Amino acid sequence: MSLFNFTYTIVGSNRARLGILTTPHGVIETPAFIFCATKASIKGVTPHMMRDADTQIILSNTYHLFLQPGADIVAKAGGLHRFMGWDGPMLTDSGGFQIFSLGHGSVSSEIKGKRNTHRPQTLLKITEEGAKFRSYIDGKIHLLTPEKSIETQVKLGADLIVSFDECTPFNVDKNYTAKSMRMSHRWGVRSLAEFHRLEAEQKQRLYGIIQGGVYEDLRLESCDNVNNYPYFGHAIGGSLGADKTQMYDVVTMTASKLDPKRPIHLLGIGGVKDVFKGVEQGIDTFDCVHPTRLARHGGALVRPPNNTVKRRDNINLNNGWCRDDHTPIEPDCGCYTCSHYSKAYLHHLLKAGELLAHTLITVHNVFFMNRLMKAVRTALSSARLNTIYSDWVNDD
Amino acid sequence: MSLFNFTYTIVGSNRARLGILTTPHGVIETPAFIFCATKASIKGVTPHMMRDADTQIILSNTYHLFLQPGADIVAKAGGLHRFMGWDGPMLTDSGGFQIFSLGHGSVSSEIKGKRNTHRPQTLLKITEEGAKFRSYIDGKIHLLTPEKSIETQVKLGADLIVSFDECTPFNVDKNYTAKSMRMSHRWGVRSLAEFHRLEAEQKQRLYGIIQGGVYEDLRLESCDNVNNYPYFGHAIGGSLGADKTQMYDVVTMTASKLDPKRPIHLLGIGGVKDVFKGVEQGIDTFDCVHPTRLARHGGALVRPPNNTVKRRDNINLNNGWCRDDHTPIEPDCGCYTCSHYSKAYLHHLLKAGELLAHTLITVHNVFFMNRLMKAVRTALSSARLNTIYSDWVNDD
Predict the structure, then answer these.
(1) Rounded mean pLDDT of chain A?
(2) B31-288: in CATH 3.20.20.105
(3) Cβ of A41 and B352 within 8 Å?
(4) What is the DSSP letter of A330?
(5) What are the C-alpha distances in Å from A261 to residues A155, A174, A236, A250?
(6) Among A84, A330, A375, B210, which residue's Cβ finds the most Cβ atoms within 10 Å?
(7) What number of CA atoms fall less than 13 Å from residue B198's CA on the CB side?
């Protein structure tokens, strides 16, 4: 029997589904959130704290690890799981995304269409062969190809890996998007070939990436492409539009055309509202730096009853009103941080510049997202996702 | 029966002793090391990780907490124990030390005689009443007096608190040292009076501070002073000289004249070798930022067999040779970090600027110091402290 498996049950009237994604490092109940251990570390949090916060799966970024410490060091350590002390399921991305977005604006603004800049200067040339770029660490020039990306990801040894693609930016025309997408399709085929040549299926599974920007016909073409190749799962990538409405449209049109037997990952999206919208369309896994990055800036995710500001998913613990507030971030939260610390203490740590602030707020935000996903799964099991929406999202 | 108690057994031929220091928050086996949670947090480490690393007692700095978040906030939180989630024994210093040393050089260089600067500009005036200083946070002017220090420490609520003193700098003459010491004695008497006036003895105990610089007659006068007042314990403060030899001389002359029935703390000293020298002279507790500060710079404490450099107590995990070293900091260490991580991973975290590096190396250094103190206590119990010295210190 394969060490990998994906089973699911459609619930309700749309494509929303409950799934079980089995990997050699454990089982993921879906819908699930994947947390970003960008450089082989969840910033400021140990793997054991991540587990205690009910985390099922994390991801690391091939681009960063390719440059530091390098895949060979990780391979000598016995792979990424052993290197970083995380023994649960893990995903790596292909490295393409960071090559194309790093250096100008944030990774998330790229796919959310917020950027209006030229190509990053660290990206030197894109050809059919691959992407030539300059290391942001030491200035050395590297060529990342589909084969090199897969070779690197095989050395890293995450359970789930992703085919190499060009992440098409938002501000290019349809013609560029189409050409780029078709090259990504060819890169996907080369990724698959390298994956099989290295016999990586003994320990890993490959996701194919859907591109096509905001154009429905291109997205459908890309869905057809990945459906026709033996990918284990599918990841929706590229620009998803200029605003949330367009993003939900793109996700809807894309997810509906993907082979439902394969797990679907939505790359780089993971706001609380986005999770509801994505799950409705059949998205099985999400990843986003938002919960952990927000925490490092003092933002704690809260549900509407614990917030004072409408349309926001978090409270800013730097704010003066927290100074003398001796209650937890969320009184009804069972996380380590809410069980032991007050907003006043977290506010103090932020004011004093103490590292522990990042750790404790990150732990809360991770637990919050895992609690959200659990609530979503529970609601799905009785086909009543909509009934919990207002518990988590304040729309008006 | 009192919630506080100190019992000890003299072992061997000198003053070295094994003790039990009982507080309302638990028992401390001495000799013990006290870790610095300067601003109500061990930088980057949760109290639970401190416990897991066998920590018995921590301290916080009154000066820092006086300025941020202020004693009233901590009092409203239910005291420092609850505020920061540490339920074990705790000590606060008087605040004097930071007033006199902050801003110019490090705290440790002050008592180790390494400074050659004028008074910090944040210190505005010392009078019989107290010390006037400018906040390094918002520039506000504050007056810290013995009464204010004790009031603050009572609000913070640590088990063990310290009388207010002027920490005499190294580069003053004997005349200044003597005058300053006698004022500190008067400040000590006022500290005691305020301590009793506030009925703090219900939950706390007060240490008196010995000053006198490097002058034997002054140290003896200071020992006489504290012995004659009802302090619970004694803390050796002030300048201890220009080098290790002079420091050991000052500690020796001072410790020998202190009432042996009271616990003796050596303020701000805690190198591995210092611990052996201090314990031999009857020191019961040590504190120093060295283990935790060193960790944040990538330095991991190791015993001689695990070091490559003589006369050093640590290895620098930033160094290139760690890049491909897949063994723990110390193969025979049982700490969380050494149980799960290699030098290669910690080196990677440092190179990648990951916060987790500080956390993991601090955990090792804390465990290392606690393991050292345990080894010292075990050796003392069979009166053979000297036989383990070379396991921990590389002198030549």
Answers:
(1) 93
(2) yes
(3) yes
(4) S
(5) 28, 30, 15, 20
(6) B210
(7) 21
- Residue B359 in contact with partner chain A when CB distance is under 8 A: yes
**A143 interface with B at CB cutoff 8 Å:** no
- What's the complex ipTM? 0.94
Worst-scoring range by mean pLDDT, A56-70, B102-116, B137-151?
B102-116
The two three-digit tokens of residue A1, written as one number? 């029997």
CB A156 within 8 Å of CB A92: yes
| Cβ–Cβ < 8 Å for A104, A123 | no
Question: d(Cα B384, Cα B382) in Å, to the nearest integer?
Answer: 6
Q: Indicate the pairing of strand A264-266 with strand A285-287.
A: parallel
Q: How far is the C-alpha of A306 from the C-alpha of A360, rounded, in Å?
A: 18
Q: Where in chain B is the domain with CATH 3.20.20.105?
A: 31-288
* SS3 (DSSP) at B301: strand
Using CB atoms within 10 Å of the CB of residue B72, give its burial: 0 to 12 exposed, 13 to 18 middle, 19+ buried.
Answer: exposed
> Closest partner residue to B77 among A326, A336, A360, by Cβ?
A326
**Computed from CA positions of residues A113, A118, A119, A122, in that sequence, does the dihedral angle turn out positive or negative?**
negative
A305 at interface of B, judged by CB pairs closer than 8 A: no
Known catalytic residues of A are 93, 287
Tally of residues, chain A: 396
Chain A (224-263) residues lying within 8 Å, Cβ to Cβ, of chain B: none
pLDDT digits (tens, 9 = 90+) for B172-188: 899 999 999 999 999 99
Give the model confidence (pLDDT) of B330-369 as tens digits.
999 999 999 999 999 999 999 999 999 999 999 999 999 9
B379 touches chain A (CB under 8 A): no
Contacts 24+ apart (CB under 8 A), B76-79: B76/A324, B76/A326, B76/A344, B77/A326, B77/A342, B77/A344, B77/A345, B78/A326, B79/B155, B79/B156, B79/B157
**Is residue A338 helix, strand or coil?**
helix
Rounded distance between C-alpha atoms, residue A65 and residue A358, angstroms:
23
Q: Which fold has domain A5-288?
A: TIM Barrel (3.20.20)
Paired residues of B303 in beta bridges: none
The residue type at A107: V
Q: What is the pLDDT of residues A137-173, one digit of tens each?
A: 899 999 999 999 999 999 999 999 999 999 887 778 9
Best A348, A351, A354, A364 residue to mutate vs chain B (most B CBs within 10 Å): A348
CA B242, B244, B246, B252 torsion-angle sign = positive
Residue A270, min C-alpha distance to chain B (Å): 23
Structure tokens at B100: 């006199």
For residue A235, list its beta bridge partners. A209, A265
- Among residues B159, B165, B287, B313, the one annotated as catalytic is B287
Q: Which residue has the tokens 């947390």?
A: A35
Query: Which part of chain A is CATH 3.20.20.105?
Result: 5-288
SS (H, E, C) B131-181: EEEECCCCCCEEEECHHHHHHHHHHHCCCEEECCCCCCCCCCCHHHHHHHH
DSSP bridge pairs for B33 = B286
From the CB of residue A224, how many other CB atoms can be counted at a distance below 10 Å?
13
Q: Are A18 and A3 in contact (CB under 8 A)?
A: no
Q: Tell me whether residues A39 and B354 touch, CB distance under 8 A.
A: yes
Closest residue to A355, CB basis, from B73, B344, B358: B358
pLDDT of residue A148: 97
B46 vs chain A: nearest CA distance in angstroms? 7
What is chain B's alpha carbon radius of gyration, rounded to the nearest angstrom? 20
Residue B44, token pair as written in the block: 């980057």
In angstroms, the CA B344 to CA A71 distance is 12
Determine, for residues B76 and A324 on separate chains, whether the beta-carbon distance falls below 8 Å: yes
